[in-house]
Amino acid sequence: MNLPVASQPPAKALAQVLGLFDPEWFHSDKSQSLGQGNVFTYSASFAELWGFDNVAFKGKLAIVWDGAATTDIIGTVDLEPHLSPLTWATHALKTRQELEIFILDLAPNHHRPKTRLHRFIEAVQPNKMPWLRVVSLTEFGRFLVNHYGHDEVPNDTNKNDVTARNETLGMLWRQIRAELTESGHEGDHHAIQNIVGPLVLLGDDYLATKGPSARALKALFSTVGLIEFQNSGEKAPSQHEDWPIQNWGEEPIRLLLVDDQWRDGWADWVSTAIPSAKRQSVRVQTTDGPNIILEGVRRSLETSTTTRDARFRLTFDAPRKDGSVGNPPPNQVQTILLLDLRLFAQGAKMEEEVRFYQDALLPLCERYVENGAGHFAWPGFTSEELNQVRQWCADPQRKRNSADHLLALTFLPRLVALVDMALPIIIFSSTGQRCISEWLKPYGNIITTFEKPRFMGRGATDAIIETRANFCEAIRTARQILVARMAACAAATSQRIPTGFPLVSNPSISDVDVFIDESGESQHGMFSLGAAILLYPSDHAKRDFVKALASQKLTWGVDEISALDLAKGTQPPNHGDCLPKRYRNTFDYEPQLQRIDKIAGDCGITIIACGFQGCGAESRYLHFSAQDFGLSPDFGDTVYRVMLGEFIESCLFGPFWFLSTNTARSVSLQTATRLGSVPENQMDLAVQYMGLKFSGYKRDNRAFFYSVGGSDILPLVIEVIEMHPKAEAKFKFARVRGATLYDFDELRKDFQDKSEKAQARYSKKIRGDMGPLPESLHFLADWVAHFALLPPRDVPPTARIWFERGFLQERNTAFRACLAAMRSADTHEFATALAQYDSGELLSTEESQAPNAFASWTSLRAKDWCERLDGRAFLRMARMLEQTR
């Protein structure tokens, strides 16, 4: 490339003067060609000088240092002291041993104070650096006399000493590197240190795409070793580690970078952490100052339903069209906050920082003053801390980086953490102050593992690898918090209100009956439990209901009252005078259900149905094998026992939890007993080895025992309640027992069979010798249990309404997760409860769920669990979710 002399008058003048003393400096042609004696004006030749390959320069070269070069700008950084003829000379001399450079400084008083390199070169030349001379214009004449005042040009003894030359150049490069990377400029936004970090991290490929200044910095960084891995045998950092970050998850994420230096390359570097395949779901957004944060804090607190905080709902977006604000749903964009602590520059902006603390930040922090009550998610501010910052703001002699100022820098992230303990905050700064880390340490959602790199005394490759690794770890921690935040947000907002919720929360309810029965065969995989729950507005409502049903022949079997008449010899009702145990056609149930429901409504009674849908035997619950005593795999009815315990628990702590949280209602809980059997010839062995209690009933060479007897229910209910020791639900049980149900069709057969065995069996049944007799309404639970076995589309419409008030649930893993969540919550392990609830919600999308699942009742309680979390519990929840997801 040729540089026209006419465009560089100072260079032409210098060449003419030097040519008077040494002809090599001036050529008679109208251009100065590289490879001959060359004289340049630095401001006009900046791009060409830094852009030329050093091998193009030979012999002698002179530069007129006439002022700052007119170049592009990187951020707000003052590049003049670092991209001067001095730094260019050290760069050019690295590869050209024979090159001699002369620099004529036209403004030494302007250039000298800006960099220690200038003063260093002046101090050591010319003895140690005959190949690099810097002369001011006022000293130019003396230089000519001293240097060219003899007939021959002096032959400097050190000019060809390669070892001395390299040692001196090494000193110059270390000096340049120190000025590029030294700390202490955190508040000065014009300091080069602000862009060295991101530019080195981004590498020479990034710098090569920018303007002349960036390309010049690339060359300088390479010379002084800040991008030392380039053009060497080492692997680039991208080959050493997983970069960009791969594990971003599936949810859309916004990285909100709050840093007034984001234009200096930090936003570009953060973007390199996102693989191209994720650029649509993971995006970087930037802002200069803290206003967007404080606006979000104020807005979220104004709309908060509690006076404490805005957990899971803090957002930095503008209000929605309907005026509402809050955290987006779990499947929408979630925010990871990248927060620089120093958002105000030195100089005039220091007053702006003080006003920010006094007028905006401190008033919000005063809402979170620690009073010892421990009602904040993380430790609040102390009065002493607030006073320290106020005094620093009021002090006209205040200084940056004093202890009080460093304390003030922590207030913004601490405030955000207190407002929303689940918003991940990555500190995106380079303070290097241990005290700041200690102040932020108690706040679990403030992540301090990342720090902007500092290169003093460090190899660039190591610094890049370490910085990337720390950022990867910070993002991993942030995503762990974010997953828990989304789960808590879903638990707090995704409530599915069951139809029965207003009914069970009706304060006018005085008494409650819960009748439970089973249907199907547990060993054949078709087994269900059903509960008919009746809510009475008064004591006499139940009596009126029972009387009305009997008057309309809506009864099923023998009960405590009708047994008295049967014992006197009264014949069981004929087929048309009672309801059957089962209809052959499903649609035959609906007319009778409508009649029952109408009578209940006339009496002010509400009927709720709950059911386990289509559950079968599970061998892991069985404790005896078939070969022990020739028993069936379902021996002992372990399936029924376990299911019955879970079912009672789900009724009491599902719908009943809301019924009993304010006032303890009188509850009658009655379940059906169940008979198991063994071969009659093994009855004695079963009694001896297993302690079975036989019912006295034998049929078809089998002896029947109570797998669940009338006296087994009370211990089972006590066991269930003890699993919820801190439950707010209150129960006042009027009756807890098991009952044996005999429908009239079965009794009629025994009554009409005049054999001795049949008559004896009939007498035992109506006397209750084979098990306690039920209340008349208990038979309704038998129908409910049968409906629970049917496909949802075949459930009679009236029964479907009853199930919508309660639940119709397949007994699957999702159900057990929700039930476990209720147990954990009622021991005040709210983190465990939410993790289990989240597991149940995830599984409910994978397993078959009835239209009104048990999880609906769990969701009503989950919001309260979220409100009762503290910060440490939330982090435990995050760790548990990381293990289960």
Quickly give the structural class.
Answer: alpha/beta
The profile of the biggest β sheet is:
6 strands, mixed
- Mean pLDDT, to the nearest integer, reads 82
- In total, the number of domains comes to 4
Number of helices: 36
Helix content class: 40-55%
Spatial sequence of strands, sheet with the most strands: 19-15-12-13-14-20
Q: What gyration radius follows from the Cα positions, in whole Å? A: 43 Å
Q: What is the tally of beta strands?
A: 20
pLDDT < 50 runs, ≥5 residues: 1-7, 27-36, 229-235, 322-327, 617-634
Shape, please?
A: elongated
Proportion in β-strands: 5-15%
Distance between the termini: 62 Å
Structure, described:
The protein folds into four domains: 2-224, no CATH class; 237-345 and 415-493, no CATH class; 501-811, no CATH class; 812-885, no CATH class. 44% of the residues lie in helices and 14% in strands. The two termini are 62 Å apart. It has 885 residues and is of the alpha/beta class. Strand 10, helix 18 (434-440) and strand 11 (446-447) form a beta-alpha-beta unit.
Lay out the secondary structure.
Elements: E1 2-4, H1 9-21, E2 31-33, E3 38-41, H2 42-51, E4 60-65, H3 85-93, E5 100-105, H4 108-111, H5 116-124, E6 132-136, H6 140-148, H7 162-181, H8 193-202, H9 204-207, H10 212-224, H11 237-240, E7 253-258, H12 266-272, E8 282-287, H13 291-302, E9 334-339, H14 349-365, H15 383-394, H16 403-409, H17 411-419, E10 425-427, H18 434-440, E11 446-447, H19 460-493, H20 501-504, E12 511-521, E13 526-536, H21 539-551, H22 562-567, H23 589-602, E14 606-615, H24 626-629, H25 638-653, H26 655-659, E15 665-672, E16 674-679, H27 683-690, E17 694-699, E18 702-708, H28 713-722, E19 731-739, H29 744-752, H30 756-767, H31 779-789, H32 797-805, E20 807-810, H33 813-825, H34 830-844, H35 855-867, H36 871-884
Parallel strand pairs: 3-4, 4-5, 5-6, 7-8, 7-9, 9-10, 10-11, 12-15, 14-20, 15-19
Antiparallel strand pairs: 1-2, 12-13, 13-14, 16-18, 17-18
Helix pairs in contact: 2-10, 3-10, 5-7, 8-12, 14-15, 15-16, 19-34, 19-35, 19-36, 25-28, 33-34, 33-35, 34-35, 34-36
